[in-house]
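Re: [ENG-882] Designed sequences occasionally contain unexpected residues at chain ends

Forwarding the minimal case from QA. C-alpha cells:
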C-alpha cells in the first residue's frame, strides 16, 4: 500500500497549522484544474485527521508557507488580520534583468477572473489598489544569448506585498519589466525554457519564504519560515546566491 502523502509541518497547535507547500500543488479544488486530484487542503486534513479551514491562497506553482485554521473562529480571526494588513508576507523570486536596489510598485490591478469559477462575477470592476515593496539581494550575468544580447542578466529579489491581489507579485514584476522566471502566464518563454533545460529549474521561481501572523487566540506574533526546495536551492548554489538568503530559508536540512 502506498503511504499517504504528507506536507512538511512548520507549526501546529490547536488553532492553526502552517505547512511548506510544494510547487505544483493546488490549495483546494478548482474548476480551472478539474483534472487535478491532489490538493493541499485534503492532504493536510488527512495528515492530521481533522477538518482544516483555508485562510489565504498561494498560487499552484508558488511554493512556501501555507496556513490553515483548525476551527471556524480561528479562521475568522486570521482572515480579519489579513484584511486589516496585520499579516506580513515575505517572498523571494528570481527575475529577468538587474532590478533596482529597492523600491515600491504601486500599480492597481484589474481583478483576474477565472473562466469557470467567476462566471457570475462582475466583469466591469475597477482596478484594485495594489502595492509591493521589493529589495534586490543579488545579481548574476550569464554568457548566454537569449533575446539578442550576448549576455543575460538576472536578480534575486525579496518581495513584501502590502496587498493581496491575485498573482500580485507576478503581475507587478511584469509591470516593471522584470518578470519572474518560470512564469508561463506573465513571464518570458525563452528565459523560462533556458532555466528549465540548462539550469534544471523548470518551475515558477517564486517562494513564500515567511509569514508573520497574530495568533488567533493570544494575539502573539507567530513567525513561520519555509525553506526552499531542491530546485531553488541548487540554483541559488549554482549562482553563488546562498549567502544572500538568510539561513532559515535555505534547504530543508536547516530545520533540524
Amino acid at each position: 500500500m502506498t503511504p499517504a502523502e504528507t506536507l512538511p509541518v512548520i507549526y501546529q497547535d490547536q488553532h492553526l497549522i502552517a505547512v511548506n507547500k510544494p510547487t505544483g500543488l493546488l490549495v483546494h479544488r478548482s474548476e480551472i484544474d478539474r483534472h487535478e486530484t491532489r490538493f493541499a487542503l485534503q492532504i493536510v486534513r488527512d495528515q492530521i485527521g481533522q477538518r482544516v479551514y483555508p485562510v489565504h491562497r498561494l498560487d499552484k506553482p508558488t511554493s512556501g508557507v501555507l496556513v490553515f485554521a483548525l476551527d471556524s473562529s480561528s479562521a475568522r480571526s486570521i482572515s480579519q488580520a489579513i484584511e486589516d494588513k496585520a499579516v506580513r508576507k515575505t517572498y523571494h523570486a528570481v527575475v529577468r534583468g538587474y532590478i533596482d536596489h529597492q523600491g515600491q510598485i504601486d500599480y492597481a490591478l484589474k481583478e483576474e477572473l477565472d473562466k469557470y469559477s467567476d462566471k457570475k462575477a462582475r466583469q466591469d470592476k475597477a482596478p484594485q489598489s495594489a502595492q509591493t515593496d521589493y529589495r534586490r539581494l543579488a545579481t548574476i550575468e550569464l554568457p548566454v544569448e537569449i533575446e539578442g544580447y550576448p549576455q543575460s542578466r538576472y536578480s534575486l529579489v525579496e518581495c513584501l506585498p502590502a496587498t493581496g491581489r491575485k498573482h500580485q507579485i507576478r503581475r507587478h514584476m511584469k509591470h516593471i519589466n522584470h518578470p519572474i522566471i518560470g512564469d508561463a502566464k506573465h513571464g518570458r518563454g525563452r528565459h523560462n525554457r533556458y532555466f528549465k533545460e540548462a539550469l534544471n529549474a523548470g518551475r515558477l521561481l517564486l517562494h513564500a519564504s515567511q509569514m508573520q501572523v497574530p495568533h488567533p487566540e493570544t494575539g502573539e506574533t507567530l513567525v513561520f519560515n519555509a525553506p526552499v526546495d531542491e530546485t531553488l536551492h541548487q540554483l541559488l548554489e549554482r549562482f553563488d546566491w546562498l549567502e544572500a538568503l538568510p539561513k532559515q530559508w535555505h534547504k530543508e536540512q536547516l530545520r533540524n
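QA comment: On inspection the terminal residues look reasonable. The helical segments are 40-48, 72-83, 168-175, 189-199, 230-238. Proposing we downgrade this to a documentation issue.
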